[in-house]
Amino acid sequence: MKELIDIAFSPVNIVLTLLMILLILYWVFTMISGIDFDLDVDVDIDVDTDMDIDTDTNIEGGNLDFEDIANTEVNKEDVVGKRRKPLKWWQIILIYFNFVGLPFMFTFTCWIFIWWLCTTITTTITSTYDHNLGYLVFLAAMIPSLILTKIFTTPFKSFFKNLNKDGDEPIDLIGRKGTLQSTISGNKMGSAEVVAESNPLSIYVKSLNGEQINYHEKILIIKQSEDKNYYLVQSYND
Predict the structure, then answer these.
(1) Are 70 and 38 spatial neighbours (Cβ–Cβ below 8 Å)?
(2) 201 pairs with which residues across the strands?
(3) CA 57 to CA 44: how far, in whole Å?
(4) Under 8 Å CB-to-CB from 13, ≥6 apart: which residues?
(5) Under the phi-then-psi rule, with left for phi > 0, alpha for psi from -120 to 50, and beta for the rest, what region is 61?
(6) Which residues of 46-79 are buried (b: 16+ CB within 10 A; e: fewer)?
(7) How far apart are CA 81 and CA 230, in angstroms?
(8) pLDDT tens for residues 18-68?
């Protein structure tokens, strides 16, 4: 047991070991308290190249934040032919290795755990956990661990697709009324606030018929888009 602890907290493995401990504490605290500390970092997903993804970010009043992107499923049917700005290298990595399409912290935890396993097992077998060569193993294990993470997490896509970002069964919003938080018209996307089961929810919306609906107008949710990223609404008068 002492030998295992020495290996896990050796100079080579200590960084990933501490990360694993922090992630375990994160999940335990999240399960006990019900508080979600998911990352909320503003990023723009500008799409182009031969793999153009139709994630319309023309949203009145602001950009999609990281939490929205991290929980958006990127499907084959979302690939379109029109040209847009090219993806940045880190955006391609996030999409390819399932950091997009699954909850970010879920994929991140899987990656760190697999990376930790690869590094710890390899340095133990080669007895390099306290040797300078172990640092090369540590860096080299990053790539295969990403590949293994992609393989491991891909089956979870169909599961998370049927849940909302908090892991609950999605609430049916069709037919509910809400308040528009930005002016929309044509193909412009905006946001709206809907109260469902006593909880205020913020959703992305587009005008059903392309007609202009002004800020703070009452709306009626008619249907959800095929990619489940936004709702089609129309103006509603009490």
Answers:
(1) yes
(2) 194
(3) 8
(4) 7, 116, 119, 120, 123, 129, 134, 138
(5) left
(6) ebeeeebbbbbeebeeeebebbbbbbbebeeebe
(7) 21
(8) 999 999 999 998 888 755 444 444 344 443 434 443 444 444 444 444 344
Cα–Cα distance measured from residue 137 to residue 118, given in angstroms and rounded to the nearest whole number? 9
Burial 105-144 (b: 16+ CB within 10 A, else e): bbbbbbbbbbbbebbbebbbeeebbeeeebeebbeebeee
* 75-133 pLDDT per residue, tens: 433 433 344 456 688 878 888 998 887 888 999 999 999 999 999 999 999 999 989 99
**Tokens in use for 152?**
């491991």
Task: Establish how many alpha carbons lie within 13 A of residue 25's alpha carbon, considering only the half-sphere containing its beta carbon.
Answer: 6
pTM of structure: 0.54
CA–CA separation, 183 and 57 (whole Å): 15
Write the Ramachandran bin of 62: left for phi over 0, alpha for psi from -120 to 50, otherwise beta.
Answer: left
Tokens at 182, concatenated: 């930005």
Cα–Cα distance for residue pair 143/96, rounded to 1 Å: 13
